[in-house]
Design goal:
Blueprint lengths: L8 E4 L1 H14 L4 E5 L1 H6 L2 H7 L6 E4 L2 H9 L6 E3 L9 H6 L3 E4 L2 H9 L6 E6 L14 H10 L3 E7 L11 H11 L6 E4 L1 H6 L7 E2 L17 H4 L5 E13 L4 E2 L5 E2 L4 E6 L16 E4 L2 E6 L7 E4 L11 E5 L5 H7 L4 H6 L7 E3 L1
Parallel strand pairs: 1-18, 2-3, 2-9, 3-4, 4-5, 5-6, 6-7, 7-8, 8-9
Antiparallel strand pairs: 1-10, 10-13, 10-17, 11-12, 13-16, 14-15, 14-17, 15-16
Length: about 350
């Protein structure tokens, strides 16, 4: 006997992904665009997203050597940049074999590269720490690092690189000034623009831009501009359905801890979606949700497999009514803001048990 499937599912619109990548390219017409597909393309499917842009993409950026090998096995010949470089010197031979580019951000990496015997020299993105204070060499170290790289037979192309911490808010002025000073008179091509800088600060575009979250249909600066204002299309839509309904009397509570208390008689719906599906447990009452295309709100705590929603203004809702958790018709940025997080986390947290379809 075949049993009906639980109604939750994720739909990935790879056509929208392609359109968002092309928008990124149009926004930086003098630059090449690295399509950032780390973390399984932000939870959207590495190979499927890569296939959607195969004929237009300039290159890819990701983290894991295994993911890079996966793209090469799928016959992608474009440049692939490892955003954290290599983690052990033993990886360098595979990096060279696959013709990958590396981000170089630490002295042990430099020493390993200098001493390696490789079948081909590598393209190196020299990471300069201009204020993010995660990875990268200090501005003062750049002349020495650059001299050693130029003397090293294992580096044939050097690209200067930094990452902006506040391109989505206060701006990039201080970091940009440090980067320009650090690379003055070096003649190096450069890559500095993440999604927010790509859209807001054209002076930072350089030779390579690095669109990330914008490719997946979310705004890189939701406090300043919505995804719709930018012209981005949602790529992931998380959908489910009502599996039960309840009528509450005034004073009755909903869910674990009873954190929501009805102030009047009201109808509520129970949705087949919970934190085991990747929905944020910390999403509190009033997080937006769509039921039959009508915007309403969640109620009470999110459970492992279920959450509750308000049906007061949706009188025709019934068991089986379609629910959109985020995506088409409901920006993931709106859900993330209400839940005190960012859309990146929503996408990356999608659970393996959720069926995914690609269109």
């Amino acid at each position: 006997m075949v049993h009906p499937a639980r109604p939750i599912r994720a739909r990935i619109d790879t056509r929208a992904f392609r359109d968002n990548y092309l928008l990124a390219k149009r926004s930086a017409p003098q630059s090449r665009a690295l399509c950032v597909v780390k973390a399984n393309a932000y939870g959207h499917g590495l190979v499927q997203c890569a296939q959607a842009v195969r004929d237009v993409v300039d290159g890819f950026a990701l983290l894991d050597l295994a993911d890079a090998a996966c793209l090469r096995a799928a016959q992608f010949a474009q440049p692939i940049v490892l955003l954290e470089g290599f983690f052990d010197s033993s990886e360098l031979h595979e990096v060279a074999r696959l013709n990958l580019s590396i981000v170089l951000h630490s002295w042990p990496q430099l020493q390993a590269l200098e001493s390696a015997t490789l079948t081909r020299p590598l393209e190196v993105f020299l990471k300069i720490n201009t204020g993010m204070n995660r990875l990268g060499f200090s501005v003062d170290e750049v002349p020495e690092i650059l001299g050693r790289l130029r003397a090293c037979g294992n580096a044939n192309v050097i690209v200067a690189m930094t990452h902006f911490a506040t391109a989505d808010g206060e701006g990039v002025a201080a970091q940009w000034e440090r980067f320009v000073a650090a690379t003055a008179n070096t003649g190096l091509p450069f890559s500095t623009s993440n999604s927010a800088a790509l859209l807001r600060f054209p002076q930072t575009h350089g030779d390579w831009v690095r669109p990330g979250i914008m490719l997946y249909g979310s705004s890189p600066m939701p406090g300043l501009q919505s995804a719709a204002d930018i012209g981005l299309k949602p790529v992931m839509t998380l959908e489910s359905a009502l599996i039960a309904m309840q009528t509450l009397r005034a004073g009755e509570r909903v869910g674990y801890g009873g954190t929501f208390v009805a102030d009047r008689q009201m109808r509520i719906g129970v949705v087949a979606c919970g934190y085991a599906d990747g929905y944020p447990r910390h999403a509190a009452t009033d997080t937006p949700i769509l039921v039959d295309g009508v915007r309403t709100r969640t109620l009470g705590r999110v459970s492992m497999d279920m959450l509750a929603c308000d049906l007061t203004n949706i009188p025709d809702a019934q068991i089986g009514s379609q629910v959109t958790l985020w995506g088409e018709g409901l920006p993931a940025d709106d859900v993330a803001t209400a839940a005190g997080t960012i859309s990146y986390e929503l996408f990356c947290a999608l659970a393996q048990r959720v069926p995914v379809s690609f269109v």
